[in-house]
UniProtKB/TrEMBL annotation:
Binding site for NAD(+): 190-197, 213, 281
Protein name stated in the entry: Dihydrolipoyl dehydrogenase
Organism: Undibacterium luofuense
Cofactor(s) named in the record: FAD
Record localization: Cytoplasm
Pyridine nucleotide-disulphide oxidoreductase dimerisation domain mapped to chain residues: 356-465
Keywords: Cytoplasm, FAD, Flavoprotein, NAD, Nucleotide-binding, Oxidoreductase, Redox-active center
GO MF, one example: flavin adenine dinucleotide binding
GO biological process: 2-oxoglutarate metabolic process
Catalytic site positions: 454 (proton acceptor)
Amino acid sequence: MSKQFDVVVIGGGPGGYIAAIRAAQLGFSTACIDAWSNEKGAPAPGGTCTNVGCIPSKALLQSSEHFEHANHAFSDHGITVEGLSIDVKKMLGRKNTIVKQNNDGILYLFKKNKVTFFHGFGSFIKAESGSYEIKVSGKSEETLVAKHVIVATGSNARALPGTPFDEKVILSNEGALNIAETPKKLGVIGAGVIGLEMGSVWRRLGAEVKVLEAMPAFLAAVDEQIAKEAMKLFTKQGLSINLGVKIGEIVNNGTSVVVNYVDAKGTEHKAEFDKLIISIGRTPNTTGLSAEAVGLALDERGFVVVDDDCKTNLPNVWAVGDVVRGPMLAHKAEEEGVAVAERIAGQHGHVNFGTIPWVIYTSPEIAWVGRTEQQLKADGIDYKAGTFPFMANGRARALGDTSGMVKFLADAKTDEILGVHIIGPMASELISEAVVAMEFRASAEDIARICHAHPSLSEATKEAALAVDKRSLNF
């Protein structure tokens, strides 16, 4: 017998589980279907983000950063460390514990908010009488009926044609998070967020890391001044970053991998690696959804087609997160999930793509919101820029981390903040002030006039805002 719900969410990642919780809070009988399992076969909701993305990568980044500090920075503080070593197995165990805590936390939130959870794959069966039948394929099969369906099935790592992931030698983000011991030589194809973060983890632990990027510019989506600073700092740390590369034949030998490539000058190279991480983007996860059973429209790349409100071509069917247009960011998915639940309730859900922050959790961190300087130039917008280096910030000096800067871009006439770009310590936390300011259409002068605690890294934000009017006080 089928089970009836007001709202069924397919997918329990950041977009899906948040949408389910918000729908339940609004009084709808709600179910969430998710197929992720842990190594024991138990439910592991949270999607890519919790299981093989945001959360575990940050755990490894933190562990590897501690190791790097002990290896190189502690002596500056008068701390002597002898016989330093890394237990990779224990590091991975800590990472797995953190993942499980997040999985269990989501299951607790479902119970707290009276969301019915189904462990299995969700797919459409048919549409009938203003409702949708959905099959749950798991240890036992279930049939659910819902008036509203929210598709939140996420994305998968994109493989290079003819080079499948074996997660032993040729790795996606999932395999990159489970390398059992530090490789001597690590190759990374793709100098994006995942490639740089995972490359940083294993470089800190002793691997020789070579990054191969097809684009001629480094971090093309980032403000050019910030990207150049990042390139300089990462190269100084020991990452070998090669731009304008054309990848040729890749040979997996079972215990190593050989990559043939041509560099930007046209010179042919052959490089052998113990492990190869491929991070060239992600594809929408719509395989197995049975979209055709109900006529759900997908585009030529497999994304669910939606309008600005996340409505699909079908009445009362919505889609959010990585499976639709827009940035593949967990927090973007969460905001869309909340907005859709509220729209189902007749409210006016809000997602402003112009104030979605981006973060790369390398060291130094890179974070930004709004437009870059090159975008403003291309759009012919008259702007003013102000920058402030962390080397002139007292708290950064005390931390021993003075690399990078804060950069403000403001409209030349109105002074409205158009973009804020940060490379430096705790950039992921500092960017929130800029997001709030831009959401309320603040001016650079507004930030410049706000009292910031001293000594704090946030003073660099104030000083960069002051620099827009060429009146920085500490540089």
